[in-house]
Amino acid sequence: MASNCSGCGPGYKSPLDAMNGPREKIVYLPCIYRNTENRKPDYLATVDVDPKSATYCKVIHRLPMPNMNDELHHSGWNACSSCYGDTSKKRNRLILPSLISSRIYIIDVGTDSRAPRLHKTVEPVEMFWKCGLANPHTSHCLGSGQIMISTLGDPLGNGKGGFVLLDGETFEITGNWELPGEAAPFGYDFWYQPRHNVMMSTEWGAPKVLANGFNPADVKAGHYGQRIHVWDWTTHKCVQTLDLGEEGAIPLEIRFLHDPAAAEGYVGCALQGTVFHFSKTLKGDWTAERIIKVPTKKVVGWILPEMPSLITDILISLDDRFLYFSNWLHGDIRQYDITDKRNPHMVGQVFLGGSIQNDGPVKVLEDKELNRQPSPRIVKGKRIPGSPQMLQLSLDGKRLYVTTSLYSAWDKQFYPELIKQGSVMLQIDVDTTKGGLKVNENFLVDFGEEPEGPALAHEVRYPGGDCTSDIWL
Question: What residue ranges carry the coiled-coil annotation (predicted)?
Fold first, then answer.
């Protein structure tokens, strides 16, 4: 595979080396049927993204899961650049947790990268009995060869931010990463930085309240999180909790800078449309400050009188120069220059659907940023349903891929047309010199045209690794 170097392990020696890696030719996306009209299992789609290929922008393979209503969501690897120096490791298994069913699928992408096959299924009872955890989300490989997966809850649907460990060879669950009694109240994403002996984790909410939709009353009732948890990487203890307050409600994706020596990063907080910068202090503990705030819009014709942006995904370019995030309700993607890490400035913006399009039911009464409501986005004759959500950047930073489904229950609530039409994948051309975003008008993967009916495609993953799955030691 392209991720293997001669005489070394998987991935790349450094983030800057990765930027010179080969251009992506295929990508993997989990496609979801839960909460749609199609009573089919979720599946893993392989999409051709090579402009020179006869099947460019086509789904070239579909691997259905053996069960219904899994809610495939995010994926990770059995080995990445954290195992670069280990010649015995190969990036040949995709780890595919199920957010609702709590199954973990291990996918063989090494035998035939264009036609993945199911290698193993880890049933939820194993996670329940061995770890007391459920609802797995983010998976990262560790330099030790193990795989670690964060969770949202316990088997009863209550919030519980723990971490499941899998053996990197057998894919058996070996137990919890955190010590007994150390699990956080809520869980979601995590990122580790061994040079600073630290791991950070974030909070979404209790699975039993978010499973079927979003109710603002659940936030007031304390069923959603607003904290970053700081863990000692060596002892596995939670050593600090950073409460971000109301402005930091529902902190989702967390990203350290890619430079393994860096002691700082960013987290996107959904509910108030904020981005926090976190960093290590001179005393050795950690602090966080809000450095971006997307203003809410006063509206009529929507469920509330004010519409937040709902930041749902963020990522950082491999050279740590640009930060990107999506506003799933407003409908735009933003690019920020973060050369000055605490003072980012926006250098690119593009609208793709969203809830404030000028021909929709919502009328904006007050907008602190825009002079008029954005027009619908048409690509290759297709009006884009839903709104930009999951992001993935090419290694060289020049192509930003975006899909439009967040999570099936929330899709159904906020963008019911997605359930009927299916989501799409688009490509945004990035100006890496001065900054700037432009829609590639010749790129569209329409998951509304799938053979088994419209599907909800979520996170994009490259076979050779990418800026949201690789961690350097």
Answer: none
**pLDDT at residue 204 greater than cutoff 50:** yes
Check whether 4 has a pLDDT greater than 70.
Answer: no
Structure confidence by residue, pLDDT tens digits, 106-115: 999 999 999 9
Show the domain range for 240.
15-457
pTM of the model: 0.96
CATH number at residue 432: 2.130.10.10
CA–CA distances in Å: residue 454 to residues 64, 141, 335, 420, 461:
14, 32, 30, 7, 21
Does some domain include residue 7?
no
Residue among 257, 280, 254 nearest 269 (CA): 254
- Alpha helices by DSSP H, listed for 203-265, are 207-210, 216-220
Nearest to 90 by CA among 139, 145, 128: 145
The residues, any chain, with a CB within 8 Å of residue 351's CB and separated by 6 or more, are 331, 332, 374, 375, 377
Q: Where are the alpha helices (DSSP H) in 252-339?
A: none
Number of domains in the chain: 1
d(CA 144, CA 166): 11
pLDDT of 144 strictly over 80: yes
Question: Is position 469 within any domain?
Answer: no
Q: 28-85 pLDDT, tens per residue?
A: 999 999 999 999 999 999 999 999 999 999 999 999 999 999 999 999 999 999 988 8
| Token couple for 197 | 């002996």
For the beta sheet containing 134-141, the strands, ordered from the edge strand earlier in sequence to the opposite edge, are 134-141, 147-153, 163-166, 173-176
Q: Which residues of 33-46 are buried (b: 16+ CB within 10 A; e: fewer)?
A: bbbbebebbbbbbb
Residue 267 clears pLDDT 60, i.e. is over it: yes
Half-sphere exposure of 435 (CA within 13 A, CB side): 19
Backbone angles phi, psi at 130, to 5 degrees: -80, -30
**Residue 228, in any domain of the structure:** yes
